[in-house]
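Data card: per-record layout.
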Amino acid sequence: MKTGLHHWWPRSLSGAWSDSAGLVHRLTPDGKVVSAPPKNWGAITNAHRIKLDGPWDTDFEPSFSEVDNTFQGVIETFDVHFEKEGRARRVHVAERKRREVGAAMAALLVRSPGFKWRVEEEVSRNWPTADKTLIAANIHNSMGHIQESLEGASLLIAFRCLEGELVMGDGYLSNLRGGDVDLPFLRLLVPLTPTLAVAACNRPGLPRDLKGVWHIPIGHAGVSEINDVTQTYSGNFLFFKSVRPKVTPEFKSGVFGQLPDHRFERLESAVEKIHGSGKCVGKPWRPKARPGKVLTSGIVVGTFTHDGP
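The structure for this 309-residue chain is written out next.
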């Protein structure tokens, strides 16, 4: 088999992060920024190769080709329901489209350097001499279980930026491991574009009429919180379109970290308030000043208020 670059950040997605000059900017923990076309980023040599020195050698990079071709459609699935006035609401998305989103998020997660690092850590505890082939085989075996979990997620929450820009990292908030299927408290959060982050979640006891896809608008505060989470789960690289993020201590450490129990309060609050809402209507998002704060707002979804975009 020939040596090749295997993309963990597919070109069909990284292009959405290009600035007006067609460049994506990469930030490392030491604060250095390098700019290049999107095709230059998000690849690891032979990351998806299982080399057994015989006829069983395989390269599973091509298995991602089909799902990589769906990313534009995945983004459009959320864009078509976006309202400029910014209402938090449940939207109808066909089951086929929801499963397509789940498969795309699974493909992003299992290929990410953050997931690869966690697989290496787990495998090395049991096999201290584990090589790249064993790591790749475990990643390959994880894909089916994780895809099944995400295709069946009871909630897809689209956090849409009305202000500011998101950053992309080489790791994602996730409590999924290789053999997990149907986690009762599934959590995955992925920035797809500079203005869209999507979370896949399960919440036991969620009424059927509240399951599906929800849109929640966020402003500067929400963008900052999601970016901080991305930095926590990233170990080597952040990517941004035009707004350079301030490096957090977590990212500066240069290790793949995680939140305690993978608990991101903004996401947990959204899930619980959806669970308690009972209705699927919303009021327009309107920024307004409050004492002691420059900009904040309340977003009403059904019968609950989602504070602070």
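Known properties of this structure: Residues 5-307 form one domain. The longest strand covers residues 155-161.

See the next section for split statistics.
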